[in-house]
Q: What sequence folds into this?
């Protein structure tokens, strides 16, 4: 708002950041003050009405026919602006998350709680990665790039890959314990799992490579059996599950839009 | 308890050690096994082949370092295919780690195939995933207005390959390479409205969900994790990491099957003893 009038295009980036923050504080403060002036009994209807209007904009925009030339209807510009506003709200979540992390881990370090050392490692990692990122972005140099790459590829990426790959060990252990021939259904599941597991990797193709590649017998090749299980019975089951999920999601969305959903927000007096 | 019965109580540390060996050995000493191309992978290949050269492909990167072993080769294989056929593409990452990893791979491949940034490929800049829906609602109608600049701050209209790219009509294929399940959002907002051909590159664990959309024709093809990438490399006749790692994938799967069989031998033996 004020930023657009007071700051000219081409002004330094930090001035824009300050301007936007100023806008947020001023208008956010005014809005908060106005909301405080609303009598308690009107607060709930106000929130219900605002929720309904917000949902209505998106619904009408989606269903109202668009102009064939522009592919837009009268509500599309508003929806685009709302999308941009949502981006700003999401950006604030980043600040809130950082604040919470610092508060939580800072408390651990200051009060010397159990595991304070890990909180200290958090601070070192956080500032090292953020510092290297800002350094390589604002003062690009070979040293900055190398530092950033060393931290990212040497630590962040490697740790991420290590964390995920440990799942493989649990899968081996879990599969060994879970797949037991306890009943007819469990046996059927075991057989399907066996075919898919082996058929999904090149060794499956190798095991049944003696079978012809054409003709009815090709269907018995492990890779073809595996693909059939995935693309037929699995797909049918997935479709059934998704129908259920989507119907549930639609019901939930309607309940939220119409403020029928009772959460902690409406259970206490506003 | 006899030897067979003991098979159902194998110490997990032994299983972990066996898995390490099963993965490490084929990576050190390569095992050549046949890679059979599935119709889903052929679908991805054909979709890129059919893409007109005056359109660009959009490669969506929603994966991080955790799944790089699977999604990295998928992304690499698709980018390699496009470079080999002189087709242009844009990277659209929704994961900050994936953004860097995919960009590094694109740079390495561009160097190998003699391609230039801004002419043959472009990076539209990292977008937070929480912004997916508003983004999918706005970019199809106005790409330059939505993204404004590329990842390096260059205005979109100053990037040579973006001059004639304005709407979703200028995108020939969308490849969603992901370790998450946001394909439905792309189908709802993009395929549902514009019928832009889509291909899918999930991790193997979420691939079974993709068959639903594959059967419905909403996606034209799918790579199922690293194995899918190995099949794609075979179609390209360009061996990469996925082909080399296919042996490790085979031995680890085989180990799981052997362990399951061993566990069941132990289980059946002890059940028979109890019945006697």
A:
């Amino acid at each position: 708002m004020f930023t657009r009038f007071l700051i000219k295009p081409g002004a330094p980036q930090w001035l824009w950041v300050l301007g936007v923050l100023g806008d947020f504080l001023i208008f956010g403060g005014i809005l908060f003050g106005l909301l405080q002036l609303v009598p308690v009994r009107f607060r709930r209807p106000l929130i219900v009405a605002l929720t309904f209007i917000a949902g209505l904009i998106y619904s009408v925009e989606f269903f109202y026919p668009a102009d064939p030339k522009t592919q837009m209807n009268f509500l599309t510009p508003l929806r685009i602006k709302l999308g941009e506003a949502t981006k700003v709200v999401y950006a604030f979540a980043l600040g809130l998350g950082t604040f919470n992390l610092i508060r939580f881990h800072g408390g651990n370090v200051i009060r010397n709680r159990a595991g304070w050392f890990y909180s200290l490692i958090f601070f070192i990692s956080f500032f090292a990665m953020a510092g290297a990122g800002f350094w390589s972005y604002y003062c690009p140099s070979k040293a900055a790039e190398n530092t950033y790459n060393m931290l990212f590829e040497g630590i962040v990426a490697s740790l991420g890959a290590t964390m995920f790959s440990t799942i493989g060990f649990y899968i081996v252990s879990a599969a060994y314990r879970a797949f037991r021939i306890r009943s007819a259904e469990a046996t059927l599941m075991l057989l399907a799992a066996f075919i898919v597991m082996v058929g999904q990797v090149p060794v499956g193709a190798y095991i049944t490579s003696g079978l012809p590649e054409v003709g009815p017998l090709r269907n018995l090749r492990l890779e073809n059996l595996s693909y059939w299980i995935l693309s037929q019975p699995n797909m049918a089951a997935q479709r059934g599950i998704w129908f259920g999920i989507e119907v549930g999601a639609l019901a939930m969305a309607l309940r939220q839009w119409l403020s029928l959903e009772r959460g902690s927000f409406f259970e206490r007096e506003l | 308890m006899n030897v067979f019965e003991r098979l159902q109580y194998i110490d997990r540390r032994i299983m972990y050690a066996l898995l390490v060996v099963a993965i490490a050995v084929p990576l050190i000493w390569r095992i050549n096994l046949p890679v059979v191309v599935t119709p889903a992978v052929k679908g991805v290949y054909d979709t890129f082949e059919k893409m007109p050269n005056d359109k660009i492909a959009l490669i969506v990167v929603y994966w991080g370092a955790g799944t790089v072993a699977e999604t990295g080769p998928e992304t690499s294989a698709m980018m390699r295919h496009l470079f080999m056929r002189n087709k242009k593409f844009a990277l659209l990452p929704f994961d900050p780690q994936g953004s860097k990893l995919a960009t590094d791979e694109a740079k390495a491949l561009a160097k190998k195939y003699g391609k230039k940034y801004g002419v043959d490929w472009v990076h539209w800049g990292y977008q937070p995933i929480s912004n997916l829906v508003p983004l999918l609602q706005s970019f199809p109608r106005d790409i330059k207005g939505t993204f404004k600049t590329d990842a390096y701050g260059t205005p979109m209209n100053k990037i040579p390959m973006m001059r004639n790219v304005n709407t979703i009509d200028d995108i020939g294929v969308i490849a969603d390479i992901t370790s998450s399940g946001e394909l439905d959002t792309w189908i709802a907002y993009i395929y549902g409205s514009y019928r832009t051909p889509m291909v899918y590159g999930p991790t193997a664990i979420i691939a079974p969900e993709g068959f639903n959309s594959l059967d419905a024709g909403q996606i034209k093809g799918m790579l199922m994790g690293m194995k899918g990438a190995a099949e794609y490399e075979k179609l390209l006749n360009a061996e990469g990491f996925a082909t080399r790692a296919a042996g490790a994938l085979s031995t680890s799967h085989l180990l799981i099957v052997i362990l399951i069989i061993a566990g069941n031998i132990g289980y059946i033996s002890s059940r028979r003893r109890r019945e006697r």
